[in-house]
Amino acid sequence: MSTRDASGRRGTREKARTALLILVAVLITLFAVLNTGTVTVNWIVGSGGVPLIVVIVLSFLLGVVCCYLVERLRSRGS
Is 53 found in the same domain as 26? Predict the structure, then answer.
């Protein structure tokens, strides 16, 4: 499915979407580069140093998984 017009050029909507994706990629890269410091994480059986970006990404992914599971259980109950 192509969003090109009759002349073969990309439409305005596709250009805007591409620009937005590039902007988001740049912001994510900047965020990762600025959060490379090491933080101490206290585990149940000990503690260790981990880069801050790893803690942020793992927390985000855990939140996504939790939201997915809650929505799945909610849709089953209906």
Answer: no
